[in-house]
Amino acid sequence: MASFSVVSNIASVNAQANLALNSVGLNRTLNRLSSGFRINYSGDDAAGLAVANGYRTDVAVLNQGIRNANDGLSTLQIKDGALNNISTLLDRLSTLATQAASDAFTGSRTTLNDEAKAILTEIDREANVAGLATSGSFSVFVSTGSSNNTVGGSIGAVTTSALGISSIALTGATSTAAVVAAKSAIDLLKSAVATLGGVQAQVGTLENSLQYAVALGQSQVVNTKAAESRIRDANIAEESANMTRYTILNQSGIASLAQANQQSSSVLSLLR
């Protein structure tokens, strides 16, 4: 049997409760559409937010690692340029020594020796400027994780002392002694070229490793951001459909609430 009451309007209470729920859903959908994020508050998806924040941190570390690697490449390129120039200077020293080692040479070996000494001084200067005066390690932090996150190696020195040519001379007490000294200088310079090549190989290997690390880091950034996006970002197509649904339900709820209120007032007609 139906009950008619002017004290408790159950239909109105139900309509209000449903309207409140629909309003919450509509506000949440509008918030997602306006922000572009599925998770705007911790309560939206607490577990997903924790995972997404972890991915975001990894992306920040990876991006800085890429910058570190590029900075390291710049440093190595400076060293590489100095090594190439020192190689050219060794070629000139070899030319001077070969010229002085000829018995048929009729010029001034003192002039050749003076130029050679100037070149040796320049080699030491360039080695100091490029940070190649002493042997040392070189490392760059490039990635996330607790291990295998650095690229590094050792780089040898290329001073005249390290190359073994600091004491070469192209003159002597006699012409014969000068020729012997020049031939000895040629042998030392051949060894110096080999030593310099070894250091160039070390620098080149590090450059290649950093370039590989940059390529890997960029790939990791893309994939990690994609993983974060799948958790954090809103599905615009889905949220658009939700907005339409909640809008219709809100309109229907308001109409139902009006009808419920009108039903309660119609009971008063029984008292007339």
Q: Can you characterise this structure?
A:
By secondary structure, the chain is mainly alpha-helical. The protein has two domains: 10-37 and 236-265; 46-232, f41 fragment of flagellin, N-terminal domain (Up-down Bundle), CATH 1.20.1330.10. It is 72% helix and 4% strand. A hairpin with an 8-residue loop joins β1 (136-141) and β2. α1 (10-35) packs antiparallel against α6, α2 (46-100) packs antiparallel against α3 and α2 (46-100) packs antiparallel against α5 (175-232). The model has no long low-confidence stretch (mean pLDDT 89).
Q: Into which percent range does the helicity of residues fall?
A: over 70%
**Main sheet: strands, sense, barrel:** 2 strands, antiparallel
State Rg.
Answer: 40 Å
Q: What are the secondary-structure elements, in order, as H or E?
A: HHHEEHHH
- List how many beta strands DSSP finds: 2
The CATH topology of the largest domain corresponds to f41 fragment of flagellin, N-terminal domain
Question: Within the largest sheet, what's the order of strands?
Answer: 1-2
Structural class: mainly alpha
Total number of helices:
6
CATH architecture of the largest domain: Up-down Bundle
Q: Please, how many domains?
A: 2
- State the distance separating the first and last CA atoms: 23 Å
Q: What best-fitting shape do the alpha-carbon axes yield?
A: rod-shaped
Mean pLDDT: 89
CATH homologous superfamily title of the largest domain: f41 fragment of flagellin, N-terminal domain
Low-confidence stretches: none
CATH class of the largest domain: Mainly Alpha
